[in-house]
Amino acid sequence: RKEVEQDPGPFNVPEGATVAFNCTYSNSASQSFFWYRQDCRKEPKLLMSVYSSGNEDGRFTAQLNRASQYISLLIRDSKLSDSATYLCVVNMAGYSTLTFGKGTMLLVSP
Amino acid sequence: EAGVTQFPSHSVIEKGQTVTLRCDPISGHDNLYWYRRVMGKEIKFLLHFVKESKQDESGMPNNRFLAERTGGTYSTLKVQPAELEDSGVYFCASSPLPVLVSNEQFFGPGTRLTVL
Fold this sequence. Notes:
The structure holds two protein chains of two kinds.
Chain A: E1 4-6, E2 11-14, E3 19-25, E4 30-38, E5 44-50, E6 55-57, E7 60-65, E8 70-75, E9 84-92, E10 98-100, E11 104-109
Parallel strand pairs in A: 2-11
Antiparallel strand pairs in A: 1-3, 3-8, 4-5, 4-9, 6-7, 7-8, 9-10, 9-11
Chain B: E1 5-7, E2 10-13, E3 19-24, E4 31-37, E5 44-50, E6 53-56, E7 65-68, E8 75-79, E9 88-95, H1 99-102, E10 106-107, E11 111-115
Parallel strand pairs in B: 2-11
Antiparallel strand pairs in B: 1-3, 3-8, 4-5, 4-9, 5-6, 7-8, 9-10, 9-11
């Protein structure tokens, strides 16, 4: 079983749509959770951290369910510039290293 | 402020040759990480330095890979001899504090390695 699992997509949505990505992680000792964004042939960049109470940053909302070991990212009012691969990333307690999912590709069309 | 830089951006070598990748972290960042993404797979951790010391090298695939960070500034990752399965994108990341505290690692643009 993969440590972090994501639907690879692609998710094809029109501009203005709302889209949600899900991610599950296998290690219950995971402590910190993130969504990174990676544009084609570029480096990953932190989009947002995910907190237990859920958090929002503009059009982006992240949720964490520790009991189900499940993380989600909701994007509202999609923009063309949101087209990218979204990486679900976790950090195990006591370790600094990041564990990545394979990513979910989002394509926003006009 | 300059970001993490990596050199070269691309490298094409033949099986059995040696390649050395370089990473310059953001100035002042004590933590330096190497990750790798092979085609079709997720990004995977290789190694973590704190200053010049190897904190965690549990992700290094085998002894053909050697990472150094002399002086605690830039780091090199040498692959010797390279094999076909070493092809992929090698990312370097840095952070001022462990991710447990800072919650962010800053990634370089990566080195795309192709072994023929």
